Amino acid sequence: MLSMLLRYTQEKHCCPHCSQDLTLCHAPPIHVGDGLGWGSEYLFICLNDTCPMFVNGWDYIANQYGRVGSYRYMELPNSKEQFSMMVVTKEAFTGSIVDLEAIKKQNERYQRQQEAIAALDTCIERNNLEPVLAVLLDDSARIDERRRAVTMLAPINDICCVEPLRNHVFKDPHLQQEVNLALNQILARNFLKECPYCSELIKARAAVCKHCQREVAGV
Ligand SMILES: [Zn+2]
Ligand SMILES: [Zn+2]
Questions:
Q1: How many angstroms does the Cα of residue 55 sit away from the middle of ligand 1?
Q2: For residue 15, how far is its CA from the centre of ligand 1 (angstroms)?
Q3: Fewest Cβ atoms nearer than 10 Å: which of 19, 100, 135, 170?
Q4: 153 in any annotated domain
Q5: pLDDT at 3
Q6: pLDDT at 20 (0 to 100)
Q7: How many CA within 13 A on the CB side of residue 58?
Q8: Half-sphere exposure of residue 194, counting CA atoms within 13 Å on the CB side?
Q9: How do residues 99-108 score in pLDDT, each as one tens digit?
Q10: Single residue among 96, 119, 141 that ends a domain in this structure
Q11: Entry pTM
Q12: Is the residue at 209 inside a domain?
């Protein structure tokens, strides 16, 4: 779906009536002309309000059919076939323009996520916490990938993971629990604990927190 859309964004479609680039839009659910679908979820449409086809269409339709309406020039993705589509307002289709920037951003996010997931394979031998955090903190990543990432925390044993993971709210309670367990393991291995009052990391055997000066013996 995303890759198909990205391919469409590479396609250049140009209006033969006004020479302007056509705009990629979501197709309306039904082909008004014959009741069939367009066979495509996306259409390239000339949304230029000064396009001669659109400007002259109002008079044409008024004269021919006695109705209010005009035509927008249109092509289907992957095709050079020419269509004209009747519209009854100037705003028709302007609400269904495909947001290309959002799609590109979504794709970049997806690519980064895939790279991080691939990097999990070697993160322990490379002592690389980065992809582990990237996958864990990404709420859109698959739960099995995130749970796999949790298991890498203790072997990597990098205390830098505490702060970002504590600051993240995991919507999945099981995942949250697994993260908490891993963090406790890492703290214990590094002879550290979190001050219950100010959350700073302190020595496990400290009796007084060096950050907030409160008593922390036995907590
Ligand atoms: Zn045009
Ligand atoms: Zn403290």
A1: 10
A2: 5
A3: 19
A4: yes
A5: 77
A6: 97
A7: 8
A8: 14
A9: 888 888 888 9
A10: 96
A11: 0.69
A12: no
